[in-house]
Amino acid sequence: MFDLDITLSILLILFILAACSFEFVNGFHDTANAVATVIYTNTLKPWFAVIWSGFFNFLGVYWGGIAVAMGIVNLLPMESLLDQNISHSLSMVGALLISAIFWNVLTWYYGIPCSSSHTLISAILGVGIAYYLLPGAAGDGVNWTKAKEIGLSLLLSPAVGFTLTILLMLGVRYITRKSKSGEDLFKEPKKNSTPPLWIRAVLIVTCTLVSFFHGSNDGQKGVGLVMLILIAIVPTYFALNSELDLSKLRQPLSQIETSLSHVDVSSLSEKDSATFAQVSGIQTALASKFKAASSTSDIPSSERFAMRKDIIVLDKGIKNLIKNDDVNISNNDKKNLETQMKSVKKATDYSPTWVLVIISLSLGVGTVIGWKRIVKTIGEKIGKEHLTYAQGASAEFVASTTIGLSSFWGWPVSTTQILSSAIAGSMVASKGVKNLQLTTVRNILITWALTLPVVVMLSGTLFLLFRNIF
Known about the structure:
2 domains; 20 helices
C-alpha cells in the first residue's frame, strides 16, 4: 500500500485507526457539552439526545471546512522535522497518538471534563520541543507563531464563555422579570415533565448548534491528526492535493509575480531584500513546475514534498512582506497577494474525502457511547442547584456562538472548556460564586493546568525514546 512494505503498511493502518480512536474518545468525552442541558432539563430523552448530537457532530466534521485541521497540521512544521528515515516519522506519530489518547481516556475515566483540543495540541508541542533538543536539529520544532495564536484562543475562550453567559443570564432575567414565562425560565425543571414548547425549541436548537460546531472545530482536529500521519509516513502521496487540477494554479502564480514586480526593491533593507529574493525565486520555480503539470501524477514523486515546502515558505514570505511597513507595496497588491496565495495553498491545505468520512463516523459513533460520566459532572457537579432552562439555554447559546465563530476564523478552541465555563457562569449569575461546587471546579482547573506540562513531557519523552529505539 502506497509503495510501503507490509510492516509499514500495517503500522500506517494502525496509526490511522488510533487517530480514529482519538476522535471516538473525543466524541464520548465531549458529548456532554451538547447533551447535558437537554437531558437535565427533560427536553430530550438521553438516548435520543446522544443520537441527535452524534448525527450533527458527523455533519459538522464533514461540512465544517478544514481551516481548523490545517491549523493543527501547520502547528508542527514537518518540513523541518521530517528526513529520509521513515522510523523518525513513525516515532513522531506514535508519540502523538499514545500520549493524546492516554490523557483523554484517563480524564474520562475519572469523569473530569478535559479538553481533547488542549491534549492534542500539547502532544504536538511535546514532539516539536523534543525534536529541537536533538543534536544537529535544524530550525524550530514548533511553529511558534501558530502556537501563540492557538494558545491565545484556548486561553481566552473559557473566559469568554464564562463572562458572556453571566451577561446573557442577567439580560434574560431583566427582560423577562415581569412575565410568567420569565419565572418558568429560572425554575428547576419538574421531574419527568418536559419544558414549555418554546423553551424546549430553544434548548434543542442550541444543542444542535453546539453539536454541529463541535464537529466543525474539535472534529477537524482529528482530520488534522490523520493528515499529519499521512504526510509524515507517505509524503509522496499526500504532500500535495491529488484531487486538485494543478493547472488552476498557473494564473494565481502569475498574478503573484505581477504584484511582486511592483515592489521597489531598491528601498528594501538587507533582510527584506533576502526575503524578497527568496519569495521571487520560489514563485518562479513553482510557476515553471506547474506550467507543465495538470495533476499531482505529472510531478515526480521525489519532488512533491519539496514543492509542498516551497509553497509553505512562499506563503510565509509573502505574509512577512505584506505585514512589513518598511516594504513599499500598494494596498491593492497586498490584497492581490493574499487572494492569490489562498488559491495556491489549495495544493497543500486539503483533506481527502475519505479522511473526512472516517473521522466524521468516529466522532459520531463516539458521541453515542460513553457519555454518562461527563454528563453527570456537567449537569450535577459544577453548580449546587439543578440546571434551569435559562442556564442551559444561555450556556449552550454562548458556547455554540463562540465555537462557530472560532471555526469560521480557523481557531482551534476547546468545546469542553467553553461549555464548562459557561455552565459555571450561569450558576454564578443565579446566586453568585457560592452556587459553585468548588471541589469540582478545582478538579477541572487542576486538570486543565496539568494537561499542558504532563502531555508535553509524555509525548516528548516518547518521541525521543522511540527515535532512540528505532
